[in-house]
Amino acid sequence: MARVPIWRKASSLTASPISGGVTNVNYRVEVDGEAFVVRIEGQGTERLGIDRQREYQCLVAASRTGVGPTVVYCLPAGGILVTRFIDGRNLSAEEMGRPEMIARVVRSLHLYHTGPPFDGLFSPFRTLEDYLRVARAHRAPLPGDTGWMFDRAAEIEAVLRPAWPAALPCHNDLWGPNLIDDGTLVRIVDWEYAAMGNVYFDLANFAIHHTFSDAQDEALLRAYFGAVTDLSLAQLKLLKIIAELREGMWCMVGVGVSNADFDFLGYATTHFDRYHQAVDDARVSRWMVQAAAGA
């Protein structure tokens, strides 16, 4: 706190830990009656694909849309980030799946998807390759069928690549703790994986973290695009499969490089199981054909 220039003359300054972080340490800091969040990066986060300078640039852009928190201070080299505290609450998966809440989340997605451009590029497929390389280097307990899972992911990429949309600003980590309802707008924090990317992956990532049903997937697409087409549904469904694998592989890297008190193996098992269930869905072949036809 002493390193933050604007706080050096503060008459009152207190800090208390914020729970819920996985790979970082977070504090709520009260300074002369104003509330801030101080984020300090954890061990090995760069191996999870996090670039602190890129994160800072993306967060500044996102804050201009009103969705991201206001940046107060950043020291990328030390993984230190200070933002204004957002007064609000996280929503349960049940709440998040209601049509009115899906529409509110989509409003926030639209704000930053169509806002100032982000720094860097994000591909879930290249991220998977990076995670596999790091996990192997650190001898993570990869599933015995990892090769098979990546082969299926490669087949999905081959089908989606021709119809890959133009890159737009994306968050790429829309799980519950990162979404805060301030009563007016669904605000979004933790822009560590943000970059220019595929909006369908942003939608898919949001959908898997809230275990959306078929009906909720369609409600999400309808809220975002105004209608559901064979192509949009196929792209969302196929990228939900990839999003599950990305979560599982993120955990495999975490097992090897992080000292966080988090059940990486249990979380990985959940997402690998869900990946298998999604790949085994009898409709996958139809979605592949529809995605290819859309190209």
Task: For this entry, give a set of tags.
single chain, 295 residues, alpha+beta, Phosphorylase Kinase, domain 1, Aminoglycoside 3'-phosphotransferase, Chain: A, domain 2, 2 domains, 5-stranded antiparallel beta sheet, 9 strands, 47% helix, 15% strand, globular
Q: Give the percentage of residues in beta strands.
A: 5-15%
- The topology string of helices and strands comes to EEEHEEHHHHEEEEHHHHH
* Spatial strand order of the main sheet: 1-2-3-5-4
Largest sheet: 5 strands, antiparallel
**From the coordinates shown, what is the CATH architecture of the largest domain?**
Alpha-Beta Complex
Radius of gyration in whole Å, from Cα?
A: 19 Å
The CATH topology assignment of the largest domain is: Aminoglycoside 3'-phosphotransferase, Chain: A, domain 2
> What would CATH call the class of the largest domain?
Alpha Beta
> End-to-end distance, in Å?
52 Å
Description:
The chain has helices spanning 52-64, 93-96, 99-113, 124-137, 146-160, 199-209, 214-225, 230-257, 264-279, 284-294; strands at residues 13-18, 24-31, 34-41, 71-75, 80-84, 168-170, 179-181, 186-188, 195-197. It has two domains: 5-84, Phosphorylase Kinase, domain 1, CATH 3.30.200.20; 93-294, Aminoglycoside phosphotransferase (APH), C-terminal lobe (Aminoglycoside 3'-phosphotransferase, Chain: A, domain 2, Alpha-Beta Complex). Helices cover 47% and strands 15% of the residues. The strands form three sheets. It has a five-stranded antiparallel beta sheet, with helices on one face. The chain has a two-stranded antiparallel ribbon with strand order 6-9. A two-stranded antiparallel sheet has the order 7-8. It contains ten helices and nine strands. A hairpin with a 2-residue loop joins strand 2 and strand 3. The N and C termini lie far apart (52 Å). It has 295 residues and is an alpha+beta fold.
